[in-house]
Amino acid sequence: MGRTCAHCGMTFALLPKEQELYRTLDVPAPVECPACRRQRRLMFRNFFHLYHRTCDLTGKKIISMYDKDSESPVYELHEWWGDKWDGLTYGIDMDFSSPFFAQVAKLHRTVPRMSVMNTNCENCDYCNMSFGSNDCYLVFGNVGNEDCSYGHIVWHSKDCYDCLYTYRSEFCYECIDCVQCHSLSFSRDCDNCSASMFLVHCTGCHDCFGCVGLHDKQYHIFNVPHTKEEYRQKLSSLNTGNVQTIAMAKERVKALIGKEIVKYYHGFNCENVIGDYLYNCKNIVEGYDLKNCEDCLYGATLESFKDSADCNFSGLIAGAQAELCYQCLTIGSSVRLLGCHCCQQNNADLFYCDNCYSCKDCFGCVGLKQKRYCILNKQYTKEEYESLLPKFVSHMKSIGEWGQFFPRDLSPFGYNETMAQEYFPMAKEQVLKKGWKWKEEPEDEERSYLGPPVAIPEDIKDADDPICSAILRCEVTGKLFKIIPQEFQFYRTMKLPLPRKCFVQRLRERFALRNPRTLWNRTCQKCKKAIETTYAPERPEIVYCENCYLKEVY
Predict the structure, then answer these.
(1) Is the Cα dihedral 139, 426, 104, 330 positive or negative?
(2) Strand, helix or coil at 211?
């Protein structure tokens, strides 16, 4: 069955499996295509932009993902969790003559928001969207980590710096899409690799340097095998703490990329999946960056989800699971959530709630903790709630709101502050023409009076502790950045040179190395079986279906 997207006008299909899930969830078929639905949700996610402002409760200076011009009040994290305020004091009555989304918008503008979203964390003040992590700095999408810095979507890892989409790994640096790796640097798309540098598309390798497309190998340099003694001798002559050595190795690896055989998707231990970066998954339709998920459609960056669709950015601690969730963004261990945003910690049967924790049976609520039977932040009895709920659902269905995510203009962020700009980039003029917000970047006044640039040593051996007190300038953007003491110690221990670019620039360059969230119809280059893959037809890699790939490499 085909439908026309109400937002972009493109035609999209409705799969039988998809229609069955909608019937189970009692929601109508979507009016927007999967890409537009994903863009709409991502407009509510600001990961990386942090601002100095004051807490609206105490006046204390804080770091916040909301700038001082935010419409809603913003409380420092611990004050938000404190008992000085109660979300029920903001309750309003339902008006059946007005659209529901217009009414819930009142709560979004008046109920306090937490400055940064860090739950069950310790010493992660400069992180955002964190859960169950300790001693981390500038990690965004920070789940179950310890002693990690400068990362995005780093889960269940320790002592990892400058990593992107890295999972269950330790002592990794500048790694992208690396799973279960240890002591790995400047690598991407690697599983179960250790004690290596500059690996691409490698599995089960250790003690390797500058290799592409290898499996279960040891003592290889630029894909050439060596004896243990030869390998150690050659490696000992390489000064990996010097930027010139790093630049040389990157160029040598670049020349090897494109000759390797790759599987049509990144990941392992999957069955009946369409998408990319999938691990331990089953029955997935257009999913990206999923781990331990089953029977899910159009999801991205999820762990332990089942029978759900159109969900993003939810990493769960081991043993937790989310089930029967639809059109949700950043939800924790939950059952039956619809249209919810930032609702974590054992929620159930929530509809269109925002920043609610450990709640059940709530509808259109914002900023509640451990509540039940609430509608628009107003408390009801069980009997009243069960009587009113069908009326509210019927009202939303009658005006076409039921089943959709919050309207785009309800996002508290400028489009360019959000992950929508990362995956669906738009120019300022395009955004404003659609009536969406755009955040103007403040001028960096500090640049004018900080004096001449500080020279960054090319070799870690030439760097001393005072570098941690210096203000450095990114060699690409000119933006200011610092080296923190624990970061400096990490580079010394790992024998790595100091970075010469700011964190945001380093992050952008890592994003550019990932496969896009776009599927192309191709054929396996060995058996000619039809496949859907994120490898564009013009890419140089040799792309195989899973069966041919496994026969070839194992």
Answers:
(1) negative
(2) strand
Biggest distance spanned by C-alpha atoms of the chain: 80
Place of tokens 């310790």: 122
CA distance 131 to 129: 7
C-alpha dist (Å) from residue 503 to 94, 224, 400, 516:
46, 34, 42, 21
Pull the structure tokens for residue 259.
Answer: 């000759």
Q: In angstroms, rounded to a whole number, what is the distance separating the alpha carbons of residues 154 and 147?
A: 11
Give the whole-angstrom CA distance, residue 345 versus residue 322. Answer: 10
Radius of gyration (Cα) for the chain, nearest Å?
24
Strands 294-297 and 305-314: parallel
pLDDT in tens, 533-552: 999 999 999 999 999 999 99
End-to-end CA distance of the chain: 40
DSSP codes of every residue in 45-63 = ---S--EEEE-TTT--EEE
Amino acid identity for residue 3 in this structure: R
What global pTM score does this model have? 0.93
**Distance of CA 228 to CAs 161, 217, 235, 486, 516, Å?**
29, 12, 11, 33, 38
Pairwise CA distance, residues 321 & 203, whole Å: 28
Q: How confident is the model at residue 399 (pLDDT cuts 50, 70, 90)?
A: very high
Average pLDDT on 373-385 reads 98
Averaged pLDDT score across all residues of the chain: 94
Residue 455: strand, helix, or coil: coil
